[in-house]
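A protein record pairs a chain with a discrete description of its three-dimensional fold. The shape at a given residue is found from the number at the same position. Here is what such a record looks like in full:
>
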Amino acid sequence: MSSHDSSQRGSGSAFLPFILIGVILLGLLLFSGFYLVEPGKATIHLRLGTIIKTNTSAGLYFKIPLVDSITTFDLRIQMATIETNALSKDLQGVSVGMVVNYRIQDAAALYQNIGTEFEKIIINPFVQESVKAVVAKFDAESLIQKRHEAKERVIDELTTRLSSKHIQLVDFNFTHLDFSEDFIKAVESKQIAEQDAKRAENQTKQVREEATQARARAEAEAFALKVKRESLTPELIKLKEVEAQIKAIEKWDGHLPQITGSTIPLMPLLDKHAEIKK
């Protein structure tokens, strides 16, 4: 009797590990039937490959283990960094860096039409095509000066193209527009030449202005001399001669000069001086 009980206990102990493993597997299976939807995300609930519902509200949801599957999409603003090469209108090579901010509008439609590799399949090619098309409308120098205008054109084109694929364009920015070293040197040389030409033009204007001023001064002086000459009437000349003689008399010390030969008619001068004093 005791040996029979011992054999039963031994056989029961042999199955115990299998029972524990079964319980653990059942627990894992039941646990895998639940999934969590985080805030700002959407889940596509698939049953045997068919979409049965889309969950966009945060919370805990149930799915049939081994039958249902879940695909998650981030509905928040996402960023894609893209690099490409383009040609300007004057056939200058441009290395372009871009940052694209976007948001998924309809996760179910996006998954059904494109899948989860939408950034590689849609966003990257669309952005490169739009940027190359816009860059080709500007020559190299204009592209540098009108960078903001080029950006706005890319945004207009991308907004329409991505919207048709259930993706909202939030923002687009150039991170860099790099040209070849030869082109950069050519631009610098042109800028230096333009600065030199502007400096020479300013100097020429200054010389012309100084010449104009000098001419104006000369004309004014000539006009003044002309007026002065025209104002010298015979009466004024005679009066100036008399004033000069009077000044000579006023300086006379009363002694007649010792002169041999003909006499100097001094009396008429004295008479004129007396008349003027009266």
Notes: The chain has a mean pLDDT of 79. Residues 29-74 form one domain.
